[in-house]
Amino acid sequence: MNGVSTPSPGNDLSDDLALALELADLADRVALERFRSADLAISTKPDRTFVTESDLAVERAIRDRLAEARPADGILGEEFGRDDRGSRQWIIDPIDGTSNFLRGVPVWGALISLAIDGTPAVGVASMPALGRRWWAARGLGAWTDGDGESPARRIRVSGVESLADASLSFQSIAQWRDAGRLPALLALGEAVWRDRAYGDLWSYMLLAEGLVDIVGEFDVKEYDLAALVPIVEEAGGVFTSVDGAPGHAHGSALATNGLLHEQVLAIVADPAASESRDERNA
Question: What CA–CA distance (Å, rounded) separates 64 from 3?
Fold first, then answer.
């Protein structure tokens, strides 16, 4: 996929962003080869989630390329685990939205991130079945191309300030129910203008483009979120756990346009977690 906005040559993340975009090209090619194949091999992992031959093939291809291009960097991937090395770690979800992929639904894509000292600094989200891609690096802004857009355009979250005017994507009712937070979701749904479950990475990219204002979910891993954080934050948004803890490694996610974040936390955050957070920040 083309249309990359060239980062400033003086920015230390320029080469890493270029590599992440190259990895996304590779992931797109490998995944599309078997998308909607009648004989796609599918199995179930110990956690009862699905994995396809394409999930495995994409991650293998990315790992092979990183072994050539960044042999000193660590890797965390959904399918083949963690290889810690120093302060730099590539975090990979080869196909975010595997359940969609195996059913032939085009809402899925690769998530590729580089975290430095535990903080995601580069993020790429690529949805080749929809012809869309988004990317960001710290200090370089958030960008998208696709849908005939050329050149790439910079993206920005919305300016919605009132929950009554806001659009929410909550991912799934089951996630919130299983986390014991369904009443909070229902309360938030009552407070906003519109609620939908767009799903997986797409919800966050709609947020980064200013088309959705709030995204929240539970039961997520680092590789589900790391690539999304730089894109949302470089677009002007805020990304925390549902209880307001910063970062991508808390098992839940709340992303907003920033203007609504505290209002949403007041509805959905666990009071005990919020008090603990406030004490740490005092």
Answer: 25
The two tokens of residue 227 are 């690539």
Ramachandran angles phi, psi of 255, nearest 5°: -120, 135
pLDDT in tens, 78-101: 999 999 988 999 999 999 999 999
Rounded-to-integer distance, Cα 270 and Cα 262, Å: 13
Q: What is the pLDDT of residues 109-163, one digit of tens each?
A: 999 999 999 999 999 999 999 999 999 999 999 999 865 556 899 999 999 999 9
CATH code: domain 14-145 is 3.30.540.10
Using CA atoms, how far residue 134 sits from 2, 93, 141, 260, in Å, is: 11, 15, 11, 23
35-39: Cβ within 8 A, 24+ apart: 35/101, 35/104, 35/129, 36/104
Intervals of CATH 3.30.540.10 along the chain: 14-145
Is-contact 73 122, C-beta < 8 A? no
Using alpha carbons, list the distances in angstroms from residue 104 to 34, 58, 255.
10, 17, 27
| Confidence at residue 277, expressed as pLDDT on a 0 to 100 scale | 55
Kindly report the number of other CB atoms within 10 A of residue 278's CB atom.
Answer: 10
CATH number (3.30.390.10, 3.40.190.80, 3.40.50.150, 1.10.10.60) of 163-281 reads 3.40.190.80
Backbone angles phi, psi at 28, to 5 degrees: -60, -45
Average pLDDT over residues 255-268: 98
Q: Which residues contact 158 (CB under 8 A, 6 or more apart)?
A: 210, 211, 213, 257
- pLDDT category at 209 given cuts 50, 70, 90 is very high
What distance in Å separates the CA atoms of residue 107 and residue 83, rounded to the nearest whole number? 29
